[in-house]
Design brief:
The protein is of the alpha/beta class. It has 14 helices and 14 strands. Its EC number is 2.3.1.179.
Length: 420
């Protein structure tokens, strides 16, 4: 059996690789530069795109979305698995880490990749693919793709990661929860390296109909690219998107021993539950406030150290107000001077992939000393009174950044990151 590698007392957890697939680009830098420049990917899906995604003829109408810049590969992987593999490939290459062929390295490399649901497109095909005799003609790949763990399994196999294999499911907080669980594996001594993140593709008619019935989708009375308006006075909900992001998390002493570049340090994390409802937060924001204060305590720092907050910012009326209130309660007077932003006006709500993509963007914001903008924010809700970086990116050193994620059903998560 492999032996636990020597650990330096107080060994930190660091980020050494990043991969992204988003509606603004099929690679990390392409998507990131588009985010910084304020580009918007939300648009009306074409009839061909709706047909490809299984919309019945009579129900197509106007359905907006933010499609990832991605083409399924020749191996027949669906979008959820394929995007995860593409993002993981970029992240592992960026980290210059390859456990394949080294048994000790492979068994000390974990894989934690979540999605908020299985591949709905593969599931639909299970009901549609019938032989003339009426018996199912099931493809093994489609059957396996229906399960949420499909992306995690594919990535672990691709990179010979033989350590713990996990697939967290935490609704819209899945991406950040996956990163937190990956960091836990390193902190607990189970792994030296973890390939962690999430992937999601939710532009399926059944899912979109559910979100519309839940009242969380943006109204159709504005141009599609302007409908998702986080923290704006006229906001009405989000537009769904798809994407993936994978981070390589690593024990600092392990990264330094192999000469890896370090992108950020993992300073603290917290998960909690908000029992207020299925789609909205407690107006008092006690759970999220607790999470923010907890990560500051874990890091041994204070509110004054926070330079930037990557917000969840769904553009739903109650949740934007609750998130604002939590930041004010946790940071106090410092909240007035902290840059914040939500990316959902640019790339839509990536649901299970939102937390990982937005965390990747937060690390890149620290790297480049620039806060990406909150697009479509023209006139702020009077109850949303932070500096949301409206319209245009803002330059300035970001030494410490806070990332927040919220999920339907009460999932709450926060992470504090620092410059290496």
């Amino acid at each position: 059996m492999p032996q636990l590698a020597d650990q330096t007392p107080g060994d930190a957890i660091v980020v050494t690789g990043i991969g992204m697939v988003t509606p603004l680009g099929g690679s990390r830098e392409t998507g990131w530069q588009a985010l910084v420049s304020g580009k918007r990917a939300c648009r009306q899906l074409t009839p061909d795109e709706l047909e490809e995604r299984g919309w019945p003829d009579g129900s197509r109408g106007e359905w907006p979305g933010a499609l990832a810049v991605f083409s399924p590969d020749e191996r027949g992987n669906g979008r959820v698995v394929g995007m995860a593999l593409q993002a993981a490939g970029e992240a592992v290459a960026d980290a210059a880490w390859n456990p394949a062929g080294d048994t000790l390295a492979a068994e000390r490399t974990g894989c934690v990749i979540g999605t908020s649901k299985g591949d709905f497109f593969a599931a639909s095909r299970q009901f549609q693919d019938l032989t003339p005799s009426g018996t199912p003609d099931l493809a093994a790949a489609d059957w396996l793709a229906c399960w949420p763990h499909a992306a995690a399994t594919a990535v672990a196999q691709q990179f010979d990661a033989r350590g713990p294999l996990l697939c967290p499911v935490a609704a819209c907080a899945t991406g950040l929860v996956s990163l937190i669980r990956g960091a836990d594996l390193i902190r607990n001594g189970a792994c030296d390296v973890v390939i962690a993140g999430s992937s999601d593709a939710a532009l399926h008619p059944a899912l979109q109909a559910c979100y519309r019935r839940m009242g969380v989708l943006a109204r159709g009375d504005q141009p599609v690219e302007s409908r998702c308006r986080p923290f704006d006075r006229d906001r009405s909900g989000f537009i769904a998107g798809e994407g993936a992001a994978i981070l390589v998390l690593e024990r600092r002493s392990h990264a330094e021993a192999r000469g890896a570049r370090i992108d950020a340090e993992w300073l603290g994390a917290c998960m909690a539950a908000d029992p207020a409802g299925i789609t909205q937060l407690d107006p008092g924001a006690d759970g999220l406030t607790y999470c923010i204060r907890s990560v500051l305590r874990q890091a041994g720092t204070t509110a004054e150290s926070v330079d930037y907050v990557g917000l969840h910012g769904t553009a739903t009326v109650p949740n934007d107000r609750s998130e604002t209130r939590a930041i004010r309660q946790a940071l106090g007077p410092v909240a007035d001077s902290v840059r914040c932003s939500s990316l959902k006006g640019s790339i839509g709500h990536l649901l299970g992939a939102a937390g990982s993509v937005e965390t990747a963007a937060t690390v890149l914001a620290m790297r480049d000393s620039v806060a990406p903008p909150t697009v479509n924010l023209d006139t702020a809700d009077p109850e949303c009174d932070l500096d949301y970086t409206p319209g245009n990116a803002a330059t300035g050193e970001i030494r410490t950044a806070l990332k927040l994620s919220l999920g339907f059903g009460g999932h709450v998560a926060a992470v504090l990151l620092g410059q290496p």
